[in-house]
Amino acid sequence: MQKNNYSQFASPKNTKSFGLLPDGKEVFCYTLTNKNGMELAVINYGATITSIKVPLANLEKIDVVLGFDTLQAYVDSFNLPNAPYFGAVVGRYAGRINEGSFILNGKTIQLHKNHGNHHLHGGNDGLSKQFWSLKNRIEGESPSITLQYISKNEEENYPGILTIEVTYLLTENNQVVVEYHAHATEDTILNVTQHSYFNLEGHQNSIEKQSLLVNAAKVLETDTLNIPTGNLLHTANCPFDFMQQKKCPTSIDTTFVIDQKAKITASLFSDKTKINMNITTNQPAVHIYVGGNCFGMIKGKENAAYHTKSGICFETQNFPDAPNHAHFPSAILKKGERYHHQTIFSFEHIN
């Protein structure tokens, strides 16, 4: 059995073993807590957020993200008919790549196809399934944790050795700041995101009575397999118009083009708990997805039975299939360049 000595970074009170992977590596759960009692828990399998507990007015806490109680459940969830990627870092390329191929520097790159004839969320063994090492841990005021993964050259057929770090910071203002830094030894493509499913009424409930706002006047048009056509559609007077707050859709899997002038990318509000969550990002898009279904095959945290309306994802990212559309924002990470992606989830009570 292989263990990892992290005692120089973390104390036992906020670090616990979360189980062993098949290769014997021990996965740990790290809990960050701020002065308000808000808690953020992360495991280093997939750099996954397992819980976000937000204090309520009555001093109780509510867990606002979906997840599992055991490491084995996270591992097994990738074998579900539709893997949920609960709380994981997704990549090297989040979203779909048409037929799993693209041209880079005049060469056709063929990625592994793991979603029918297409490549989705980094392939068969993307970042979500990897063991990330603990790079740094800061405790006290505004605690944070930094995890690192080094992706080998040709992993899932992506060119170059990719070194990627994600930092989770819990501020004293009840913000969860997610920040990525990466670089590669060769020109490659990169588009990562955080795949938490949020439910401001607790992870055992439905999102259908919560309210959604998205500052986006356009969405990506897609075909029947949700592959971008290259066209952009206006949201005005259509079902994707969330420029004014309205009830969450019960089914959506759509990429919104963010209004870069807006202070807030998107927001979610529960009239029941009076919790409001604002999302801001430096990315050009947010892919919004409602789901979480575990098909009755795996129980969620606290024996929850997750279903098709259990949570909503805000996947801040570049456009899906961007390498195959010259007019989309470039997803190329050149050798020697630095990738930087920041997304902030801010929680507040609104009376």
UniProtKB/TrEMBL annotation:
Its EC number is 5.1.3.3. GO terms for biological process: galactose catabolic process via UDP-galactose, Leloir pathway; glucose metabolic process. Beta-D-galactose binds at residues 195-197, 253. Pathway: Carbohydrate metabolism; hexose metabolism. Keywords: Calcium, Carbohydrate metabolism, Isomerase. InterPro entries: Aldose_1-epimerase, Aldose_1/G6P_1-epimerase, Gal_mutarotase_sf_dom, Galactose_mutarotase-like, GH-type_carb-bd. GO terms for molecular function: aldose 1-epimerase activity; carbohydrate binding. The active site is at residues 195, 315. It catalyses: alpha-D-glucose = beta-D-glucose. CDD domains: galactose_mutarotase_like. It comes from the Bacteria. Its cofactor is Ca(2+). Belongs to the aldose epimerase family. Monomer. This is Aldose 1-epimerase.
